[in-house]
């Protein structure tokens, strides 16, 4: 009997871990799920794309984005692509200065540039200068980057083939399998020398322990902030119907759970928000942080400079694509930078900024993005994607 109860508690705990990325609405298991083919079509039809500016967008929309918000809009012309921020898709108190929004746009631009070169285009990227310190409510969607296209010999980067295979892996990594020096060199070699972006990889056990402890504390602080956690919860898609309607956000399927636990999470009654958030904290601390052999930090010279945020996103996309190419899994762990923004928004002393500064060799370069990389124990799942018609609305031209 004791073993049976313990097993049931374990299954329930695993099921509530699926809510680690958002709210806990009703499961809706009593109604037939809608067809989800359209929500995931972009991944499966990538090889069917045609040449031309619109096909570049097909690669761009498969990029990483904060909370899978996909905060981008595109306008294509014969010889150029204009990229705008979709300000309506901001994360509120989780990203009050839209720093992560522009990192996400940088990810999309990196995919677009890789695809353009492969199609025999010479892409020239121009980022619109600007600051990210204006409040969200005073801003409208605007063009943030332009890619001019001209004919050139085709160059197919090895990273391009991994565009449709790149997915965030939230499952455990192999904790006792280190990342070799040759791999570390390949990752650090992805930093472009002419940008105000730096990369630090934490391989030392003490440094990794310090980062893990600080990230766990930041996770707890997010949970204890009702506005932050509420703005995060709003993006979670708990049912097939929500996925079909929104085609964005984190989902149970992509939470990194086993097939059994994923199934249980979909059919069991929704746990309380308190229990769901508690399990997110435990999953972050005991699985994601505890099993990672490598943490990474991307830093910039000015945390709220638009161009630097976009360039940081381009680097993260390259890092993630390279990880896939090498057989590795990768996941953002941005709780610390998110708390930096929240404390700044509230006019509080920069406690978390000081903690982050203590984790890097040069504290004059503030950290804008944190992540983990390791050898996966389970394949990462697809995430839903908005279609081309949605992200190429006339309003973006």
Q: Topology, please?
A:
Blueprint: H1 2-17, H2 37-44, H3 53-60, E1 72-77, E2 80-85, H4 99-118, E3 121-127, E4 143-151, H5 181-188, E5 197-202, H6 205-224, H7 226-233, H8 240-246, H9 259-267, H10 273-289, E6 294-300, H11 306-325, E7 329-332, H12 335-345, H13 351-357, E8 367-374, H14 388-391
Antiparallel strand pairs: 1-2, 2-4, 3-4, 5-6, 6-8, 7-8
Helix pairs in contact: 1-9, 1-10, 3-4, 4-11, 6-10, 12-13
Description:
This protein has about 400 residues and is α+β, with helices and mostly antiparallel strands. It folds into two domains: about 15-30 and about 165-375, NADH Oxidase (3-Layer(aba) Sandwich); about 40-165 and about 385-395, putative nitroreductase (tm1586), domain 2 (NADH Oxidase), CATH 3.40.109. The protein contains 14 helices and eight strands. A four-stranded antiparallel beta sheet has the order 1-2-4-3, covered by helices on one side. Strands 5-6-8-7 form a four-stranded antiparallel beta sheet, with helices on both faces. Strand 1 and strand 2 form a beta hairpin. The longest helix has 20 residues, at about 100-120. The chain is globular and about 50 Å long. The model is unreliable at about 1-35 (pLDDT under 50).
């Amino acid at each position: 009997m004791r073993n049976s109860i313990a097993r049931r508690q374990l299954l329930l705990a695993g099921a509530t871990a699926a809510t680690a990325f958002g709210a806990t609405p009703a499961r809706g298991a009593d109604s037939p799920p809608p067809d989800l083919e359209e929500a995931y079509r972009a991944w499966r039809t990538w090889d069917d794309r045609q040449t031309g500016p619109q096909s570049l967008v097909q690669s761009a929309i498969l990029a990483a984005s904060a909370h899978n918000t996909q905060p981008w809009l595109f306008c294509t012309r014969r010889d150029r692509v204009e990229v705008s921020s979709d300000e309506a898709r901001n994360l509120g108190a989780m990203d009050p200065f839209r720093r992560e929004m522009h990192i996400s746009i940088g990810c999309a631009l990196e995919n677009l540039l890789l695809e353009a070169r492969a199609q025999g285009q010479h892409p020239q990227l121009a980022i619109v200068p600007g600051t990210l310190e204006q409040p969200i409510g005073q801003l409208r969607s605007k063009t943030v980057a332009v890619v001019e296209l001209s004919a050139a010999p085709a160059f197919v980067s090895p990273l391009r083939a991994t565009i449709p295979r790149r997915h965030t892996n939230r499952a455990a990594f192999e904790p006792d399998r280190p990342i070799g020096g040759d791999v570390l060199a390949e990752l650090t070699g992805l930093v472009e020398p002419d940008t105000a972006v730096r990369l630090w990889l934490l391989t030392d056990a003490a440094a990794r322990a310090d980062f893990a402890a600080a990230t766990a504390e930041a996770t707890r602080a997010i949970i204890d902030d009702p506005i932050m956690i509420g703005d995060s919860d709003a993006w979670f898609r708990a049912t097939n119907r929500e996925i079909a309607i929104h085609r964005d956000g984190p989902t149970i399927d992509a939470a990194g759970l086993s097939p059994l636990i994923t199934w249980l999470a979909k059919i069991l009654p929704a746990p309380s928000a308190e229990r769901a958030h508690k399990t997110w904290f435990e999953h972050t601390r005991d699985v994601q942080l505890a099993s990672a052999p490598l943490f990474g930090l991307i830093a910039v010279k000015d945390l709220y400079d638009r161009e630097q945020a976009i360039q940081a996103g381009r680097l993260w996309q390259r890092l993630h694509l390279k990880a896939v190419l090498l057989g590795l899994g990768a996941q953002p762990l941005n709780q610390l930078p998110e708390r930096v923004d929240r404390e700044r928004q509230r006019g509080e002393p920069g406690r978390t900024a000081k903690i982050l500064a203590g984790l890097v060799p040069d504290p004059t370069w503030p950290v804008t993005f944190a992540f983990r990389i390791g050898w996966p124990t389970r394949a990462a799942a697809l995430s839903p994607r908005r279609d081309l018609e949605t992200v190429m609305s006339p309003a973006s031209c």
